[in-house]
Amino acid sequence: MTLRKGEKMTISIQEHMAIDVCPGPIKPIKQISDYFPRFPRGLPAAVGRSSSLRSAVSQPSVSPAEAPREEDEDVDQLFGAYGTTPAEQPAKCPAPEEVVDPEGYESDDCTTLGTLDFSLLYDQENNALHCTINKAKLPKLDYKKGLKPMDHNGLADPYVKLHLLPGASKANKLRTKTLRNTLNPTWNETLTYYGITDEDMIRKTLRISVCDEDKFRHNEFIGETRIPLKKLKPNQTKNFNICLEKQLPIDKTEDKSLEERGRILISLKYSSQKQGLLVGIIRCAHLAAMDANGYSDPYVKTYLKPDEDKKSKHKTAVKKKTLNPEFNEEFCYEIKHGDLAKKTLEVTVWDYDIGKSNDFIGGVVLGINAKGERLKHWFDCLKNKDKKIERWHTLTNELPGAVLSD
């Protein structure tokens, strides 16, 4: 085709888009991303994205492993062969599952709900379980992780609640103080369960819950953990630092079937000096709640039967609004040591009510006709004069021959 002077050569769009259809093997088409440099996730703050791109384009050095093949030469002339030398090669981006959360928490439930540091000690001699709550590390709560913020400032007012399972009574629940506006609370507070027996250590579980206190709404649950008490060795402190879990259901049926009326700690001593039996009412634990507020106003009565003159009745002071009262009162029954084998000691626990009949909570009978620990306690008292012997006893709601009225 001849061109006149000053006329430019034009190329039709058909010629421009012409495809080479010469016979031959089909060559693979490279992806467009192969011709652009790859950058690590998150550039340094001092280096802008545009400046990084310009520096990469201005240094088109190619590593031997990425040398262009013969079929790529035409494309390389258009785009350039971008790459980096081994010395300049940036670190590979982590695989998606290895990416660390920018907030510093992993995405699993474990660290999402936080961790709790605490220790447990079973004092076998004193029948006490000591739980020391040290500290917790709570996550930043947000909707992305499926957790709503506890407070509008993204913080919480956390406290820790203990609950012995099985057992639905409020007497089984203890709690720490509340710490305000923190996600890293440190309590260093010891909560104690009294009246814990070896049997409890085999069959019971300690539920530890972390909650957020709210003055104007219901307190909100954050996370919990459960420790079977059989994991503990007597008189040995065991430390825990474990992840909190989602709330687990409680078997209400099991709780009701194993519900107890409570426990009482009684001391017995036959005093040669006073020529009588000293009965000490020390404390009660885990009493059943008899009032609408979920508590009781307990007191204890003791009888030494048979009591023909009806003079053996003794009564402790009333402790208001508690299920774990401490009395520390002692009563003396003047009686010959040889006559004790014919006597029975009845101990009953009551809830005091104003203007109506007092409610019976539970009782226990000690004597030569008793069984198990109740018989052993009585027998040890008779055998060891002038020695005070303390025992925990489980209250029952049925006492043969007992006067169930006040």
Tell me what the structure shows.
Among the domains are: 142 residues, C2 domain (Immunoglobulin-like), CATH 2.60.40; 132 residues, Sandwich (Immunoglobulin-like). Helices cover 12% and strands 30% of the residues. It contains seven helices and 16 strands. The strands form four sheets. It has a four-stranded antiparallel β-sheet with strand order 5-2-1-8. It has a four-stranded antiparallel β-sheet with strand order 4-3-6-7. The chain has a four-stranded antiparallel β-sheet with strand order 13-10-9-16. A hairpin with a 4-residue loop joins β9 and β10. The longest helix is centred in the C-terminal third of the chain and has 12 residues. It starts with 12 loop residues before the first helix and ends in a 12-residue tail after the last strand.
The CATH class designation of the domain at 109-250 is: Mainly Beta
Q: pLDDT below 50 for ≥5 consecutive residues: which ranges?
A: 40-110, 143-148, 253-258
Which value, in Å, is the CA radius of gyration?
Answer: 39 Å
CATH topological fold name of the domain at 109-250: Immunoglobulin-like
Task: Give the SSE order as H and E letters.
Answer: HHHHEEEEEHEEEHEEEEEEEHE
CATH architecture type of the domain at 109-250 = Sandwich
Largest sheet: 4 strands, antiparallel
What gap, in angstroms, lies between the N and C termini? 128 Å
Task: Produce the secondary structure layout.
Layout lengths: L12 H4 L32 H10 L14 H7 L29 H5 L1 E9 L4 E10 L20 E8 L7 E3 L10 E9 L3 H6 L1 E8 L7 E9 L9 E6 L8 H6 L5 E9 L4 E10 L12 E8 L8 E2 L10 E9 L9 E8 L7 E9 L4 H12 L5 E6 L12
Antiparallel strand pairs: 1-2, 1-8, 2-5, 3-4, 3-6, 6-7, 9-10, 9-16, 10-13, 11-12, 11-14, 14-15
